[in-house]
């Protein structure tokens, strides 16, 4: 890899260009250049790579299957929304060299990212960037350039003092351990050291009892505190001598605070912690809209990557729109638009591989086995593949509410219209006519009528026969998610069943929330409701899911390909419970006789407001704004947003810190009153202040209020795409009082 390899970079069946790929000496960067011109085209960091897939595992490589054998093909998959890189090596041996080499380079990131590991990687990266003449040393001029790159605008005299203190050899340059000393002086955490000394009698170490006091008084750990203190010392104290004496040094204390145990996110809630034996309608379910699209709704690209990415984010409700293709082969795309098309069989094959096997890349958790809900014409082929309803060929008739996620593990449920009653499907053929519209204003129902045929001739009688045949096959697959029209809550209560589902546009849902909030909550306590984006959102923008969750809507479909606050909320809600894609609704939203109305929190017996107090202390190594000018340094501020019922919606922000993205100090306290904390999401946003235009996004982190761990905590920031950007973080102090 470090000697370089000529491979074909492939973008389409007709676009295959030879490029020279080489792993840089730092073993962290790969660049490639045109073989013809010698001009460097692009470069990427190993840390940007999520995984490597061998063989024909992309639409482009599948289209070239007859021309190039799978042994020579592989795909580099990046985190976030960056496009994949499809490559064809000159030989199977070369392909394996790159595949195995890349996997070995990214493999260490599957281990827990300790503070020390992050720091070592960070130090090495910065040294490589700053050493302009590549002589393995850094003079003071290079150090000044480094500070600008690191988002630090430091006084020249102070920088020179740090440089001279670290230059133990008095050579006028820094190398090896000298640079590490300089880096440590630069990253000294005075606020953490001050906290450490508040609990340390000698200011040098925390004894076991002193650490227990800190955990109880500040971190509010009240169970097994001594055992926890011992675990933290064993896990995070870098000195063997200190570990043997059961004490924690300042370095170990910082490593603990930067660890998962020191995160604002309660580590117990990362794993599966909720009851999964409630009816489906008692859960919020992570749901996507037009899952196959990875761009806009009119001319955007359709790709199996849309399904893979959604499933990896914990999505459990997908859409497949199937239409006639060449030679009767069904194709998936957004009908009556100019979006590209993908074969239906590729979608089904992809879902067969990923539906129950993928977890979040950074957590080791995911949707292993939890039921998947699908909309569209998937049933016919899924039934043949054995995916439909898993191994259960004889589902039971629901007696009250819908079945539970636990009962439906390894099952795929089909949402669609149905001929006859569920009893007829389970007991024998029925003679009831198909239902009509299953959506408000008939909009989606009309779309579904357009989708109903897969293949077939254009002859009238043959077409009708094909439709009837397929409709029956499709109908027989619909068991627990029968699509029905929504004609009002009273009508639903009188004539609908728990195994049925209605779909509503965002506009229709908002009107019902405004006019009949309590009835909407009661309805969602016993039946599923799906919300989908307005047809006017041709740019694949999203509506806020929060207002839909406030009334208990379970399937709130979003455009997963579009980054922004709306997807941050979605990721924030579903980052808990093992990222399985199911989050249990609070008890008052599972009661069919509830008095709760999100527009009037006082309408039900709540325990009173909860006070959330957040002291924003500091930030660490914040990233520079994308496409910023050379030498530019950000002016960061922190905004805290509360998303919940209307009475709880709020936002407050700190002042901005001028010219310091490396270690800004705010020391500001923000306070919020929450009337329905069970539904609240808290979003931390860091922006680069700009007095003449909109602030630029720097990073964010969103989580449900229920998952907040009080005390002194680090918030590890995420990019706009929802991927981690280590070691960027905020340091805060959290207090919750009722």
TrEMBL record:
Tagged with keyword Nucleotide-binding: no
Start and end residues of each stretch annotated as Disordered: 423-465
Occurrences of domain PH (ranges): 1-107
Cofactors that this protein relies on: Ca(2+)
CC terms in the record's Gene Ontology section: endoplasmic reticulum; nucleus; plasma membrane
Molecular-function GO terms, alphabetical: calcium ion binding; phosphatidylinositol-4,5-bisphosphate phospholipase C activity
Group of enzyme by EC: hydrolase
Membrane topology: Peripheral membrane protein
Catalytic activity line of the entry: a 1,2-diacyl-sn-glycero-3-phospho-(1D-myo-inositol-4,5-bisphosphate) + H2O = 1D-myo-inositol 1,4,5-trisphosphate + a 1,2-diacyl-sn-glycerol + H(+); a 1,2-diacyl-sn-glycero-3-phospho-(1D-myo-inositol) + H2O = 1D-myo-inositol 1-phosphate + a 1,2-diacyl-sn-glycerol + H(+)
Cell compartments where the protein resides: Cytoplasm; Endoplasmic reticulum; Membrane; Nucleus
Keywords recorded for this protein, A-Z: Calcium, Cytoplasm, Endoplasmic reticulum, Hydrolase, Lipid degradation, Lipid metabolism, Membrane, Metal-binding, Nucleus, Repeat, Transducer
EC number per UniProt: 3.1.4.11
Stated name of the protein: Phosphoinositide phospholipase C
Organism annotation: Chunga burmeisteri
Lineage, uppermost ranks: Eukaryota, Metazoa, Chordata, Craniata, Vertebrata
